[in-house]
User: What shape does this take?
Amino acid sequence: MRHIKPKGGIYHCMSRTVHGRAIMGRREKEVFRKMLWQLADFSGLRVITYCVMSNHFHVLIEVPEEQVVDDAELVRRFRVLYPKPTKSVAMRAEDLAQLLAEDGERGQALRASLLSRMGDLSIFMKALKQRYSVWYNQTNETFGAFWAERFRSVIVEGKGFVLQTMAAYIDLNPVRAGLVKDPKDYRFCGYAEAVVGVEAALSGVQRVMRVFKEGDNAADYLAGYR
Assistant: This one.
């Protein structure tokens, strides 16, 4: 796997299902959407926008220049990704907090291990695709590869309309596919979530707006998609 750990970059990432099979229905898209936000929060990456289609997904994501994560934030992020013990991760967030506070060898090792998974595009994408594949196969009693390939990524260089154009390209996928006339009516994209006021999605809109003139507002930006 090519390891990408850039500092301060914005990337357009995309991946398809095996043979381009249209196997992601409404339930599957909903699960993917939730996993995307969970992992982005845990990793400290900003999802500017995204779109989940029946056989592929796009995500426009910003990797921060650097992250300072104290133990309280580390525990919060752990709880986001692991709200309750699982077969693979039996530890509770409260147990992690105690170990970090004690600062013994185990606590230090856990801290280093968790921090190594944050702020890293490749680790984020690998975890997203693997977690989703495991969920899909377990839920549907199937086996084998779900994704056709390693994810593809392209750095988005430039400012202003370059970033806005890429965000619009992603959000307008369901319109081009003839599924809806307005992306606000397609639940599984960042634009639709921003329209209904989802905080994380609005943060992505604000990131795009930051490069425009002072006085622009989210309503004007969102209206520009129509």
User: Anything to note?
Assistant: The mean pLDDT is 90. The first strand starts at residue 10 and ends at 16. The chain has ten helices and four strands.
